[in-house]
Amino acid sequence: MVVLKFGGTSVQDGTSIAQALDIVAGSLSGGLLLVASAMAGITNNLVSLVKALQNGEEPLARDLLQSIAKRHFIVLEAVARGANLDAGRKQLDLHLSDMEALVKGSLLLKDCSPRVQDALLGAGELLSTTILWAAALERGWETQLFDARAFIKTDENFGEAAVLWPETFHAVQGKLTCPRRSVSIIQGFIGSTLAGVSTVLGRGGSDYSAALFGAALGASEIQIWTDVDGIMTTDPRKVSDARSIPFITYAEAAELAFFGAKVVHPATIQPAVERRIPVLVKNTKNPSHAGTKISMEAPGSGLRAIAGRAGVTVVTVSSSRMLNAYGFLRRIFDIFDRQRLSVDLVATSEVSVSITVEEKRDLRPLVRELEELGTVKVEEDCAIVCLVGQDVWKDNSRISRVFQAIPEVPVRLISLGSSDINLSFVVSSSDLDRSVSAIHRVFFDPKEN
Ligand code: ASP
Ligand code: MG
Fold first, then answer.
1. Closest Cα to atom 5, ligand 1: which residue?
2. Which atom of ligand 1 lies closest to the CA of 44?
3. Which architecture does CATH list for 2-227?
4. pLDDT in tens, 278-331
5. Which fold has domain 305-448?
6. Is residue 436 within 8 Å of residue 238, measured between CB atoms?
7. CATH 3.40.1160.10 domain range(s) in the chain
């Protein structure tokens, strides 16, 4: 069996739902689990609803609830008729009246507790899957609608609950059934505590749900259906020649995600990684495109993708006391630790250490502490170029091609070797885009290769 996860834009209206179900039809014979997000924009509306309740803004809260309800009824009417429409309406009404009660209670108490927040935030998935269920019935399919809260077991960290894997796997096995020639439907994003209180897994959590279900059910594949043709060789908004990557390893995808390739976050597919289940990223609007397959081993070699990240600061500590001394790096890193600053790249020489951090924070307290160890230089407005590809950098000629592509760009720091799949270097922010394009052209332009 396979798990198919559809994101918000894939279930946002009647047309998208029809496209999603056409895709589902292709997997019916072997049995499948359809995992869905809330319709696009709904979770954001629910966040606004929670805020309105926190501020005691009754009219706004009521408006939001009403418009959420209306949008779902309209979509339901577009995908189901007769008895299926009635069944869908009845089920939507049940969820909406729960929401109504939560809203009313919060307004009466002038309080919106974390438990209430999670119950409301997760409602979008309950509503969207109700519509999918009615739409699947309308196609005449054997259909079962499950409640993810009975399976995904979490701690009580409301808003971003951590999944209890053993309890979840135990709950799924044997009880979440996906018979052949039928469709089983379930919500992403939501779960419940061991005591049965509703929780959510954090924004964007549906991919994680899909991976958990896939792992627990021993799926042969997890398909993430979204609105792009998979993971791209680089940011298509910046480089028009960017193209979709057919195959990528889990490790390569992890390196890329850190640099902002947002398609799927590796942390979310961890359950699939552990069970070695391939994850396929596909485009609901362009289903014939092969998309990207993420797996343990990927065919092909060479440079897989280029990512860039601006907003980086390089902090360099220099001291002659470092020469032949030990424990110096530990002292430097202790300071970063105390300042709770996450270090990205590091390069060292005998007498200096350069470290990159994200530019979000006031670094003065860090600098003050570091100055006790040596001279400190802070360079702002830097950027990291990250080149990812399994085993690429074993070949020196590839490294030289990288730097030959950008002869006039000053390079501040180079990091290679900590993993054999990633070559990263720092340039000034103003050089980022042209560096990425130039290197992309050298490695990916069919005319140049
Ligand atoms: N609906 C949730 C969100 O918007 C979860 C998801 O889409 O993955 O964050
Ligand atoms: Mg999403």
1. 204
2. 4
3. 3-Layer(aba) Sandwich (3.40)
4. 999 999 999 999 999 999 999 887 899 999 999 999 999 998 887 777 888 999
5. VC0802-like (3.30.2130)
6. yes
7. 2-227
